[in-house]
Amino acid sequence: MSEHSLRVLLSENQIRARVREIAARIDADYPDGVLCLIGVLKGSCIFLSDLVRAIRRPVRFDFIGASSYGAGKASSGSVQITKNVEMPLEGCDVLLVEDIVDTGITLTHLLRRIERHRPKSVRVAALLDKPERHQRPVDIAYLGFSIPDRFVVGYGLDYAEDYRGLRDICLLD
Ligand code: IMP
Prior knowledge:
- The chain has a six-stranded mixed β-sheet with strand order 4-3-2-5-6-7, sandwiched between helices.
- Helices cover 23% and strands 31% of the residues.
- The chain is globular.
- Helix 3 links the parallel strand 5 and strand 6.
- It is built from three helices and nine strands, in the order E-H-E-H-E-E-E-H-E-E-E-E.
- By secondary structure, the protein is of the alpha/beta class.
- Inosinic acid (IMP) binds at residues 40, 43, 68-69, 75, 98-107, 151-153, 157.
């Protein structure tokens, strides 16, 4: 693994508490119907797996693969789909689950793709948001934390595939 200095921005406990709060809101907002969570690979997989276990109502989940970063810290601006959703979404309430919203380009692209499946509704749950960086209007129904314009790793988020397994979310210097 490459050597960088890491400083905790959000601790494991803070993340756990916030995921529980978001799950409780989702339970209240979707009392019935089929709720499908679509996790954006690979960064959201830990957030999604904690979220589905904190939500009390029944859920289904699948993943969509998107890549806009390559191995660097800056978005390339173009979104490649690396895996499509395989589960039928027609008539379902869909929650697109993102690790982090940066420019909003990935989210905008993915929402357009999800709409093609004719879901009943679509909302976004994102663990992190960097509002200063938005280049597209984004509507995040369930947000974990707003953070400053800094590169972060851990809890699923990587730098060149490293650091995804950290339990805290850390600033990478
Ligand atoms: P956007 O299209 O610019 O909003 O980029 C969103 C994607 O960029 C996220 O799903 C992450 O994969 C990646 N990303 C953005 N900021 C960070 C960061 O600080 N750390 C790790 N990945 C990031």
